[in-house]
């Protein structure tokens, strides 16, 4: 497994910063479909929250509730302390200017130049032409598109269009930025550049960001915390590195399959119940300060024939996150001793079965 690193980013101070978002028991039904079912969440000022789930899990309904396009059947949605679920459409308009939105398919106006697209929210808000164009140029510099101010969207690449979309979302100096699958239409290299831009914006502006996505790699690259949604409910929520190191919900484990080492197929196909003379295959997960002593303990067990057959170390939010698969000779009491030794260091182990020839 490759090692991913990125520089440390100070975590938002959730003890002193006010919550920009507070959801309490949000539910929304469409006919027989319960799209949201009792969701409660808070997002602190300056925090990046990733909300991940499969298609139909309720992500899009949740983000539409956050920007006031959907009204919940039950519960409260507070944005900067104001319950938007209780506001009239007229009263919602000023608050919506505090919420920027990035879309999957950019939603740029083809007949307007790049700077006109960026300035459009300010034009709607009645800001003078001089002020709004000055703000547009400032934002185009921020997203690296100063030279494209007079260009039209048709001449831009997908990544450039999304940068324009991000600049437009920032035009009114929002307190909250919502991203709805903003990178799912982009190639991997462009996705990385857009996520790097969002991280940079979060650092420079202290902007609160909520990312809706179905890709765990997006969450890993940019989010402080992740909430996993399934069937309209939050089934898991924690710091990103903790979720990657110890996914508890079945849906989370499934979503992480492409982002964590998996037992090689040729070994998985050999797995059987206990067999004499075989090797037990154990999965091992460990993170944070427990990684180094665990690796040392594994090295000490090599004298007993314990071997690493697959795995590696990742770095998420500057925390080491390791997953390994061990082959342990089926000697009397050895599996139990290995489990006890490594568990004592803070690792989590699971027996997967036995194989005759794992390597």
Could you characterize the architecture of this molecule?
With 359 residues, this protein is an alpha/beta fold. Helix content is 32%, strand content 29%. The protein has helices at 59-66, 89-96, 114-124, 129-142, 158-169, 188-205, 216-222, 240-245, 250-255, 265-268, 291-301, 334-344, and strands at 19-30, 33-44, 48-52, 74-79, 82-83, 99-102, 176-180, 208-213, 225-230, 233-239, 279-287, 307-316, 319-329, 348-355. β12 (307-316) and β13 (319-329) form a beta hairpin. The longest helix has 18 residues, at 188-205.
Return the average pLDDT rounded to an integer: 90
- Along the chain, the helix and strand elements come as EEEHEEHEHHHEHEHEEHHHEHEEHE
Q: How would you sum up the major sheet?
A: 6 strands, mixed
Which class do the helix and strand fractions yield? alpha/beta
Straight-line N-to-C gap: 17 Å
Report strand %: 25-35%
Helix content: 25-40%
Radius of gyration: 24 Å
Shape: elongated
How large is the count of helical segments? 12
Strand order of the largest sheet: 6-7-8-3-9-10
């Amino acid at each position: 497994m490759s090692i991913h690193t990125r520089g440390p980013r100070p975590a938002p101070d959730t003890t002193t910063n006010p919550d920009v978002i507070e959801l309490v028991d949000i539910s929304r039904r469409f006919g027989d479909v319960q799209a949201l079912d009792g969701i409660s969440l808070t997002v602190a000022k300056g925090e990046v929250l990733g909300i991940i789930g499969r298609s139909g899990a309720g992500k899009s309904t949740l983000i539409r509730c956050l920007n006031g396009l959907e009204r919940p059947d039950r519960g409260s949605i507070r944005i900067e302390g104001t319950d938007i679920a209780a506001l009239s459409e007229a009263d919602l308009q000023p608050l919506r200017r505090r919420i920027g939105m990035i879309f999957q398919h950019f939603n740029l106006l083809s007949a307007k130049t790049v700077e006109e697209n960026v300035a459009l929210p300010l034009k709607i808000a009645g800001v003078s032409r001089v002020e709004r164009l000055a703000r547009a140029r400032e934002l185009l510099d921020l997203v690296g598109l100063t030279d494209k101010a007079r260009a039209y969207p048709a001449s831009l690449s997908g990544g450039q269009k999304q940068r324009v979309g991000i600049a437009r979302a920032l035009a009114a100096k929002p307190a909250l930025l919502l991203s709805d699958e903003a990178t799912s239409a982009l190639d991997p290299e462009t996705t990385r550049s857009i996520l790097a831009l969002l991280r940079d914006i979060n650092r420079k502006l202290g902007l609160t960001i909520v990312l809706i996505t179905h890709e765990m790699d997006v969450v890993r690259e940019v989010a402080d915390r992740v909430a996993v949604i399934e069937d309209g409910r939050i089934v898991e929520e924690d710091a990103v590195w903790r979720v990657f190191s110890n996914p508890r919900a079945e849906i989370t484990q499934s979503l992480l399959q492409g982002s964590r080492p998996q037992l090689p197929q040729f070994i998985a196909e050999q797995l059987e119940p206990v067999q004499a003379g075989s090797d037990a295959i154990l999965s091992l997960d460990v993170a944070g300060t427990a990684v180094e002593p665990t690796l040392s303990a594994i090295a000490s067990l090599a004298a007993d024939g314990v071997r690493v057959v697959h795995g590696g170390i990742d770095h998420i939010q500057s925390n080491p996150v390791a997953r390994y698969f061990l082959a342990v000779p089926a000697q009397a009491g050895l599996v139990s001793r290995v489990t006890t030794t490594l568990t004592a260091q803070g690792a989590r182990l699971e027996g997967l079965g036995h194989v005759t020839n794992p390597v």
